[in-house]
Amino acid sequence: MKKLMFIASFITSLSCFGNEVTYFITNVQIKNNAVILKTHANRSNPNVECINAQRLDSWAIDLTSQGGANLFSLILGAFESNRPVILKGKNTCLPEGDIELLDKVKFKSKLN
Fold first, then answer.
1. What is the rounded distance in angstroms from the CA atom of residue 80 to the CA atom of residue 36?
2. How far apart are CA 112 and CA 98, in angstroms?
3. What are phi and psi of 3, to 5 degrees?
4. With CB atoms counted within 10 Å of each terminal CB, which end of the chain scores lower, N or C?
5. What are 77-109's pLDDT values in tens digits?
6. Which residues are bridge partners to 105 per DSSP?
7. Which helix (H) or strand (E) holds 18?
8. Does domain 21-107 have CATH number 2.40.50.340?
9. Long-range CB contact pairs, 70-75, < 8 A, 24+
10. Where are the domains of the chain?
11. Three-state SS for 2?
């Protein structure tokens, strides 16, 4: 039974990992209290209706939000080192724009 549970959880984790898109940060700009970043690899199916079709390569960080400065630091590190990342949005956009707010940054392992 334990083997069956292990196999089931392993297969599930593989399928979740397979859905993650790897991005490279290509541009970082600060505009007012937000960071706008562009990525290589556009999102093909965003879950947020407020995203403009012309901005599928863009994400935003609200520097006034809790954790915003930390996300900015991670993004700068990925940008400077040209390291691939996995990005997860908040499913909401900047109040004054059509760019999805960034929720999480995960550095992609160099082994993958």
1. 15
2. 32
3. -65, -40
4. N
5. 999 999 999 999 999 999 888 999 999 999 987
6. 87
7. helix 2-18
8. yes
9. 71/35, 71/102, 71/105, 72/35, 74/105, 74/107, 75/25, 75/28, 75/35, 75/37, 75/102, 75/105
10. 21-107
11. helix
